[in-house]
Amino acid sequence: MGLQPRTMMLAASATLALLTPAAGAATTTGSGGDLAAHCAALAQQMQGHWPDPSTRVQKAESVPEGTLPVFGPFDAKPDPVQPLKAHCLIDAVMAERKGVDGQSYAIRFRVRLPESWNGRFLFQGGGGTNGDIGNGLGFVPGAGLTEPAINQGYAVVSQDSGHDNDTNTDPARGGQVAFGWDPEARRNYAYASLKPVADGAKALVARFYGKPADRSYFAGCSKGGQEGLMFAQRFPDTFDGIVAGAPGMSLPRAALAQNWDVQVFSHLLTPDGDGKRSVFDLAKTFTAQDFSLIRKAVLDACDADDGLADGIVAHYGTCTGARLEKALAQVQCQQDGADACVESAKIKALRESLAGPKGRDGTPLYAQWPWDAGIGSQDWSVWKLGLSQPPVPALNVVVGGAALHGIFSATPRALGANPQEIFQQQLAFDFAKDGDLIYRTAPPFNTAPWDEMSARSPDMDGFRRHGAKLIVPHGVSDPVFSVNDTTGWYRELDARYDGKAKDFVRVFPVPGMGHCGNGPATDRFPAFQAMVAWVEQGTAPDRLVATAGAQTPWPGRTRPLCPYPTYARYDGTGNKEAAESFQCTGR
Ligand code: CA
Fold it and tell me: What is the CA radius of gyration of the chain?
């Protein structure tokens, strides 16, 4: 689910130098010239002033200018990696307690307070199953935040959402999803940790600089996107603006879809003598040629619908029906063993996957997925099938299976100790019988996982009343959360607000892009800058000019990303590699 481990989630390389710092407020120096002393004094100054009195500072450290950012080994890094600007680093903890599962829990958060402050506050969303305090640098490419916010002068907070992967991990309880055995830890992961951390960080900012932030923002992708929507729906006055990239708004349903995919693609496996299928064989089901032919079919059918055959299906919503079927038929093998074609069973499995999970009597349990040119990219395959070289089991198994039963079921259980065991449990899952398990309760889990974890409400009255703005970028080839779920939500929102949802919410599908980045796509986009400009200058984002990275067939190409339901259409004249030759249109 958003359950993208940081290894994957932040694998998006962000080769991006074109971003300028956010426009706006004048720089303020908050520290009175002695950052170290001011930082050291902060812990004591906050005593008696924390919104949550259980809060205490664990570390206060003055970080001088020039110190290189501490990125994890798998974190995406800005390119070039810039020296970090001088700031005060605070690690704090609150709500320390013993869970009903006997484990020790707490909510930990990290705040970076720049010496040269731009008057703004940023909450950096988490990823995957969280459990990591985050780096607090404010570098979130999937939310279009591609220059570390700390270096732009933002005060930044990140948090672990109430459990710690270093201490709360239990191999007998699904590893890092072991917190799912404690109701409060689940609730904190779902939403409950968010507001107290925002409040605590805001109080810290106000004390450090002698005044509250002029503006407060949120940026996150995946689970972080879910957190942005949680804020908008449950704590709507917290932020002036939010970028919620590829939001896990329907986390539990997406976990069902992952189990569905596992079953659908397993039909392509040949059982051994004992009738057993191997999880590692999933990655061998589709060859590179298979995916190349499938992409060819999608492009043959739909690429030119946006006025230009350029490898980008901008008008992806109409990529269905007879033309697509005809193109798929043309790459499908007419007889077994034929060359340069895709076996019909593979196309059938892909079709079933993209149609989304079905419960009893064929009831849809999540959303459909678009036919798009990013299907079969590495970013897509690692979730749906895994990788052969080096062997990586499908994340739909190791992440999805653990999460569905550890966090999104009222009665948590561990599926197994290794990918093969989890896989076999997923194969045995009965959608007709248990397709509704995410809606059930069982003591001590008295709220259904769906009610706690989902952030899909079209009721955004509070957020709208607050005058706040929301931007939602989402990859059309995202294998984790379907862009169709996001746009379906947007349609509900637009209906609720009489066709005027665009006055405060805009969804930007990114054709070809995977989960929070990657794929054959223009996956570098200034969504965060655009959101700030919308809030501070009232400039609504009618298009975002996005750039293709080095991993694409067309490095440096630019395209407008268009607010749903419009798409980028080629004018018929002008530079085919440049965004200015394209218009956002609904035609
Ligand atoms: Ca095209």
Answer: 23
Provide the 3-class DSSP secondary structure of residue 499: coil
Q: Which residues contact 281 (CB under 8 A, 6 or more apart)?
A: 269, 270
For the cut 60, the answer to whether the pLDDT of residue 539 exceeds it is yes
CA of 314 to the centre of ligand 1 (A): 6
The answer to whether the CB of 84 falls within 8 A of the CB of 66 is yes
How buried is residue 411: exposed, middle or buried, by Cβ count under 10 Å (0-12/13-18/19+)? exposed
Catalytic residues: 222, 478, 515
- Residue environment code for 115-144, b if the CB has 16+ CB neighbours within 10 A, otherwise e: bbbbbbbbbbbbbbbbbbbbbbbbbbbbbb
482 and 507 Cβ atoms separated by less than 8 Å: no
**Three-class DSSP category at 114:** strand
Nearest to 379, CA basis, from 553, 550, 520, 219: 520
CA of 488 to the centre of ligand 1 (A): 23
pTM of the complete model = 0.94
d(CA 326, CA 153) in angstroms, rounded, equals: 54
Instruction: Report H helices in 267-316.
Output: 288-302
Cβ proximity of 233 and 460 under 8 Å: yes
Q: What's the token pair of residue 348?
A: 């059938």
How many Å lie between the centroid of ligand 1 and the Cα of residue 450?
37
- pLDDT above 70: percentage of residues in the chain: 93
pLDDT bracket for residue 310 (50, 70, 90): very high
**CA atoms of 222 and 568, how far apart (whole Å):** 24
509 in Cβ contact with 559 (< 8 Å)? no
* Distance of alpha carbon 583 from alpha carbon 102, whole angstroms: 58
155-159 and 120-124 as β-strands: parallel, antiparallel, unpaired?
Answer: parallel
- How, if at all, do strands 241-245 and 215-221 pair? parallel
Distance from Cα 99 to the centre of ligand 1, integer Å: 53
307 CA distance to ligand 1 middle (Å) = 6
Q: What b-and-e string marks burial along 321-353, b requiring 16 or more CB atoms within 10 Å of the CB?
A: eeebeebbeebbbeeeeeeebbbeebbebbebb
Mean pLDDT of 313-336: 94
| CA 518 to ligand 1 centroid distance, Å | 18
Please write the tens of the pLDDT for every residue from 370-405: 999 999 999 999 999 999 988 999 999 999 999 999
Q: How far is the CA of 1 from the centre of ligand 1 (A)?
A: 29
Ligand 1 center to 61 CA (angstroms): 51
Number of neighbouring beta carbons within 10 Å of residue 152:
23
